[in-house]
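Lab notebook, design round three. We kept the backbone fixed and only want residue identities now. Task for the bench partner: fill in a sequence for the structure below.
Input structure tokens:
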């Protein structure tokens, strides 16, 4: 069985809550859930599968702690590592909805990670999202601010997709 590590950057606590919900669904122990503000990038070496999550801030910026963490990950060869991405956003920010997911995806390309678990953004309504890469949503997007009623079903479906891919 592949070992899963969940790494999140959270400013308000929403992304941490989502990370813990994912962990419960995937059977990931608390010791394998990491706040990137308190974790060295080298900690990813203990895992076969990384689930990385962060929110989008301001004008589409990646959450600050995750941005710093990913800068550290760029020095690591993740060629044998599967990576799934998730992010929190607000569809009212129609031009930058969940851009953080797309930013993680683009910034991690030089690590040679194998990206898994793309997911659809339906039924969210927005004009643009960097999470949409050539017509594919590269991770799970959650809008807890406007659509908390969708979160549990989206987490359930995404976790099932992850289980099938790993």
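Proposed sequence:
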């Amino acid at each position: 069985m592949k070992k899963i590590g969940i790494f999140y950057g959270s400013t308000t606590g929403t992304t941490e809550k989502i990370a813990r919900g994912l962990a419960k669904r995937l059977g990931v122990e608390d010791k394998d859930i990491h706040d990137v503000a308190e974790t060295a990038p080298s900690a990813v070496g203990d895992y076969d599968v990384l689930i990385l999550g962060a929110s989008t801030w301001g004008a589409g910026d990646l959450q600050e702690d995750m941005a710093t963490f990913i800068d550290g990950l760029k020095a690591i060869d993740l060629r044998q590592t599967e990576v799934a991405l998730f992010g929190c956003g607000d569809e009212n920010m129609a031009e930058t909805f969940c851009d953080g997911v797309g930013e993680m995806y683009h910034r991690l390309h030089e690590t040679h990670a194998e990206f898994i678990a793309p997911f659809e953004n339906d039924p969210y309504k927005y004009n643009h999202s960097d999470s949409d890469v050539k017509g594919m949503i590269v991770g799970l997007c959650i809008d807890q601010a406007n659509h908390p009623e969708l979160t549990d079903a989206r987490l359930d479906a995404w976790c099932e997709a992850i289980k099938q891919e790993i």
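Keep this in mind before ordering anything: The chain is about 30% helix and 20% strand.
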